[in-house]
Amino acid sequence: MGLINWLDPHVDRYILTTADEHKVVEVHKHWAVMVWPAVRVAAGVVIFVSAFAFQGSIYWILVFLGLVLGMQALWRFSRSTAIGS
After folding, report:
1. Secondary structure of 72-83 in the HEC alphabet?
2. Which segment of 12-16, 55-59, 68-72, 76-80 scores lowest on mean pLDDT?
3. Is 40 in contact with 70 (CB distance < 8 Å)?
4. SS3 state at 67
5. Residue-range domain boundaries for the chain
């Protein structure tokens, strides 16, 4: 407890509760949280790019699937980096 107590900035006495100040504790997420969305973004890009090798309805299905997978993964990636999530 000595090292942890030494690292504490002891700012509680300087917070102005009458001015509606409060402490905010930020906890950063582990890098592994980003791995699965990154894999899905990569898969979406591969599916989207490979769609150009096909014609007709297969082309449109792969374009749609690649865009949906990539965009959903990018949204999930942005939500995992947002404050409060």
Report:
1. HHHHHHHHHHCC
2. 12-16
3. yes
4. helix
5. 26-81
Helix/strand/coil for 56: coil
User: Which two three-digit tokens encode residue 16?
Assistant: 């102005």
Which has more confidence, 1 or 47? Answer: 47
Sort 1 into a burial class: Cβ within 10 Å, 0-12 / 13-18 / 19+.
exposed
pLDDT given at position 71: 94
Kindly report the number of other CB atoms within 10 A of residue 45's CB atom: 15
The string of pLDDT tens digits covering residues 26-47 is: 666 777 878 888 899 999 999 9
One DSSP character per residue, 1-16 reads -HHHHHH----GGG--
